[in-house]
TrEMBL record:
Gene Ontology molecular function: any one: transmembrane transporter activity
Native source species: Thermococcus nautili
Pfam families (alphabetical): MFS_1 (PF07690)
Transmembrane segments: 47-67, 79-99, 105-124, 145-166, 186-209, 244-268, 280-303, 310-329, 335-361, 382-399, 405-424
Protein name listed in UniProt: Permeases of the major facilitator superfamily
């Protein structure tokens, strides 16, 4: 069946991306400071947050594979999206309940693990729906819009959390933001809103967005053959390896931002110092997302108009350079400028890299397999969470709790990824 560009489908997927970003941002914005109430160890906190990466290594790959072959009147992707969205919303409410009831660290960690599992149930299916429904020449534009709404979801959550912390501080007189928030009824608000978005968006896509007719798969490859084919195809292998590197760079900052801020501004990342920079961290996350929005839409357009290689490399370099500067940063102003510039590069990089797998599958006439290949796409985004959480925490401890070292290390990883993209043979595609 011929694919036609449909703004209603793109906006439906963008809404789903918005809700998922709100969920992941809740995790990024509040999990680290809440875990700091249990322990000051960077390694322990990083390891718990890295569970997301461990789960993401397997669940998207397996469920993406099986969604390709699913034949039902409900579609291939939408059943996973509905189940995953509802469970994710429930998991968010469980995280708040566990913390407010004062469960021990292992109990709080288990609720986070259930949230990560629920979110990854439909990660590959959400990603696969875009190339399923949009032809190759328009995927950059669609990716730009979807990326725009995804990062708008981040901005919404970080802005909401920052506003609530400011109100809690004024109400309680407590200097530490997260501690003030925990003393007021405001703590439940971001969790309730996130659950509403996750469940609502999943139901919206299930009942409103129509999937195209599933293509016939004459010779369905086994799971082992599918994984083998990725290793044998150099273009897929280069892209997945490059994405692993630049996402690890991102996760170094995303996971340990509060520790980085506390170390740069106060000289150490103690519980008190981390809680003292919570408001600033949320503000900087919001700023980063604003500049990601500025880079996302033109990044998608550049992908379709300027070319795949050049747009990806441009985004990567813009993202890496402020991190090299990060080793010398010592003030709030410098941190703000660096993260703002990095956000523009990250927006270009995200919008330019999302359509690559779909275009490669079109090139090699394997569009029936978008679920499994986007499942592996998500695994190479999850592996960095696992590696960055564990290795980042270990590196920080080996460096004498010097969180600043993560900046130049992240820059090196991004710059190592760029030659892999540049030397992909089949990256460029027909213009629509």
């Amino acid at each position: 069946m011929e694919k036609k560009f449909s703004w209603s489908v793109v906006l439906g997927l963008a809404l789903l991306g918005f809700s998922r970003s709100v969920g992941w941002s809740l995790n990024k914005g509040l999990s680290f400071p809440l875990l700091s109430s249990y322990t000051e160890s960077a390694f322990i906190k990083g390891t718990i947050l890295a569970v997301e990466g461990f789960i993401g290594l397997f669940i998207p790959v397996l469920l993406g594979y099986y969604s390709d072959t699913l034949r039902s009147r409900h579609g291939r992707r939408r059943p996973f999206i509905m189940v995953g969205g509802i469970l994710s919303g429930i998991a968010v409410l469980m995280i708040y309940t566990a913390y407010s009831m004062g469960v021990p660290l292992w109990g709080f960690a288990m609720t986070l693990g259930f949230f990560y599992l629920s979110m990854h149930i439909y990660t590959a299916q959400y990603r696969a729906l875009m190339p399923d429904t949009v032809e190759s020449g328009h995927r950059g534009t669609a990716s730009g819009v979807i990326t725009l709404l995804e990062w708008a979801g981040n901005l919404f959550l970080f802005g909401l959390a920052g506003y609530l912390i400011a109100k809690a501080v004024s109400m309680t007189g407590e200097n530490e933001g997260i501690k003030a928030l925990a003393q007021t009824p405001y703590l439940k608000i971001p969790f309730l809103i996130t659950a509403l978005f996750l469940i609502g968006a999943a139901l919206f896509v299930y009942f409103v967005v129509r999937e195209p007719e599933a293509p016939e798969i004459e010779e369905n490859e086994s799971l082992a053959d599918y994984l083998k084919s990725i290793v044998e195809n150099r273009d897929f292998l280069k892209f997945y390896a490059a994405q692993t590197l630049w996402w690890m760079s991102f996760e170094f900052i995303a996971i340990f931002l509060y520790g980085i801020l506390a170390f740069i501004l106060y000289g150490s990342a103690t519980e008190e110092n981390i809680k003292a920079v919570t408001s600033l961290g949320l503000y900087l996350m919001a700023l980063f997302n604003v500049t990601v929005l500025l880079g996302a839409l033109p990044g998608g357009i550049l992908y379709d108009k300027l070319g795949r290689r050049l747009s990806i490399v441009l985004g990567g370099v813009i993202f890496a350079l402020p991190q090299l500067w990060g080793w010398f940063i010592s003030t709030k102003t410098e941190i703000t400028i660096a993260l703002g510039i990095a956000g523009i590069g990250w927006g270009i990089l995200m919008a330019s890299s999302y359509p690559v797998i779909g275009d490669l599958l079109t090139k090699f006439e394997r569009e029936a397999f978008t679920g499994r290949y986007y499942g592996f796409f998500e695994a190479t985004r999850s592996l960095p969470v696992l590696l960055a959480g564990i290795l980042g925490g270990a590196i920080v401890q080996l460096a004498g709790e010097n969180y600043r070292v993560l900046f130049p290390l992240g820059a090196v990883l991004v710059l190592l990824a760029m030659p892999m993209i540049w030397f992909m043979k089949n990256l460029e595609a027909e213009k629509g």
